[in-house]
Specification:
Shape: globular
Strand order of the largest sheet: 3-2-1-4-5-6
Radius of gyration: 23 Å
Strand content: 15-25%
CATH architecture of the largest domain: Alpha-Beta Complex
CATH superfamily of the largest domain: Ribonucleoside hydrolase-like
Distance between the termini: 54 Å
Largest sheet: 6 strands, parallel
Number of strands: 20
Structural class: alpha/beta
Number of domains: 2
CATH topology of the largest domain: Inosine-uridine Nucleoside N-ribohydrolase, Chain A
Length: 489
């Protein structure tokens, strides 16, 4: 081999791990822990998850227990839904690349122990599910592993317990740092135990009452939210009926629609979501890193759910021992459709809560789901596909106080040739600069804003601007682009 060529190859081999770490990940590695059969919403969430299976590297689908299903796991229900997915997967490939086969996914279906919480953690408590989690963490892949927890996480707790007991401390620490955990509240006592015992594990959770949890923004009716797109009639028309075998596997709502879905909505690459920055906000809600005050939970008050004639009592998180990613608030005025002039105007009413951080995107992610269900039964030309948003400049801009700068999305296009609507807005909660930055009155609807004045600051600040691009197809689909402006004095 030519010595120069050998030197170049050697350099690239040495540099490869660094390059991998520096690159944005196109797909998130995801393991789902589900107490499927405890509530119809797990099956609902699995249908949606599979509709987006091309957007993830699905590393595992593990049947677990929870406080709602303490002595049973149901991997057979995962297989049943995967059988339906296998029938429509070839049609999904007409619309987007990367959908795994049902056989590939079935090989990753595992089960945890059919016991509740911490009674499944410790010596001789291994399961094929906990062993699989360790195996996935030990894969030679620099990407983090997202654990999407729809029930109780005792299967993950056992994996962590075993790593702690059997791996050298430096190796164990490396594996902990690869974890990204999002649990739908605390559905057994192992979640708080993980947070206390493994303080370096990245953890998103809304401890305490379901009613105050961020994730509940997906399903409940809220003033200001588009509640029609989570109605039974909408679900029947756009998801269940006439959308093939997988749509038939989407059950009716019992306690709440898709309560588990927010645990992976924020992983979908849409130009808005940034999984490594929960504080930026996205389809799965927005979260901040702090130590919350403990809040007891006396059953899911949104449903009045009972179990064996008794009110279900959720685990009490107790005092959190370290900062976690948890509930944050947005202040938001919805866009209202207008028959004349600008197609959308800002409502005069403002809403503020942790659920707002999620339901503000509800119409967009529901329309997106409906389009994916259409993909299952249509050819490419008969369905709608999301616009492709392009910027004429980097996603991070650096300016000084008082400087004039622009935001430009020229090059954005729609793959179906649909007309597009543009809307720029500031997301103040996502940046350090909280005050409004004014646009010219007409400019939010333009593709190119060129007269924005940077505010006067006395210390470096960040401002998040979001471009929302919506096509005029059916259903109307939206993609975004986030621009972070760094302002220095």
């Amino acid at each position: 081999m030519n010595p120069l060529r050998f030197s170049v190859l050697l350099f690239l081999l040495i540099l490869k791990p660094v390059l991998l770490l520096a690159q944005p990940y196109s797909k998130s590695r995801v393991i789902v822990l589900t107490d499927i059969e405890a509530d119809p919403d797990d099956a609902q969430s699995l249908v949606r998850f599979l509709a987006y299976a091309n957007e993830f590297d699905v590393e595992g689908l593990i049947a677990t227990t929870s406080t709602h299903q303490r002595n049973r796991v149901a991997p057979e229900s995962i297989h049943k839904i995967l059988n339906a997915y296998g029938k429509i997967q070839p049609n999904l490939l007409k619309h987007a690349k990367g959908y795994p086969t049902a056989a590939e996914l079935k090989a990753k279906v595992k089960k945890g122990l059919a016991v509740y919480g911490l009674t499944g953690v410790g010596e001789n408590k291994d399961s094929e599910g906990s062993d699989w989690i360790i195996r996935m963490l030990e894969k030679p892949d620099v990407r983090p592993v997202w654990i999407s927890v729809w029930g109780g996480p005792n299967c993950l707790a056992q994996a962590l317990w075993k790593i702690q007991k059997t791996r050298p401390a430096p190796e164990a620490a490396r594996l902990y740092q690869k974890l990204r955990v999002y649990t739908i509240s605390d559905q057994d006592d192992s979640g708080p135990w993980i947070r206390k015992t493994f303080p370096d594990v990245f953890f998103i959770v809304s401890p305490g009452s379901y009613r105050t949890a961020t994730w509940s923004g997906i399903t409940r009716n809220f003033p200001g939210a588009n509640n029609e797109v989570v109605s039974n009639a909408w679900i029947a028309r756009h998801i269940q009926q006439g959308h093939g075998p997988l749509g038939l596997e989407y059950p009716d709502v019992a306690y709440g629609m898709e309560g588990d879905t927010p645990s992976f909505l924020g992983l979908i690459p849409n130009g808005l979501n940034n999984p490594e920055h929960p504080e930026y906000g996205g389809w799965g809600g927005r979260y901040e890193l702090y130590t919350p005050v403990a809040e007891p939970s006396a059953g899911p008050p949104m449903s009045g759910r009972t179990q064996g004639g008794q009110v279900v009592t959720m685990p009490v998180s107790g005092t959190e021992t370290r900062p976690i990613w948890t509930n944050a608030e947005d202040s938001y005025s919805p866009l209202v459709a207008s028959s004349w002039g600008r197609p959308y105007v800002t409502d005069t009413t403002r809403y503020k809560s942790s659920q707002v951080t999620l339901w503000r995107w509800r119409e967009d992610f529901q329309h997106d789901f409906a389009a994916r269900m259409d993909w299952m039964v249509t050819d490419y030309k008969q369905a709608n596909h999301p616009p492709v948003v392009k910027l004429a400049h980097p996603t991070t801009l650096r300016v000084k106080s008082g400087e004039i700068f622009g935001l430009n999305a020229e090059g954005t296009y729609d793959p179906d040739g649909d007309a597009l609507s543009y809307y720029w807005f500031q997301y103040p909660e996502a940046g350090t600069f909280k005050e409004p930055v004014r646009f010219a009155p007409f400019s939010p609807n333009l593709i190119n804003l060129h007269t924005i004045k940077a505010p006067d600051v006395t210390s470096p600040q960040t401002i998040h601007f979001i471009l929302k691009v919506t096509d005029k197809g059916t259903p109307a689909l939206t993609r975004y682009q986030r621009v972070i402006v760094q302002v220095s004095p």
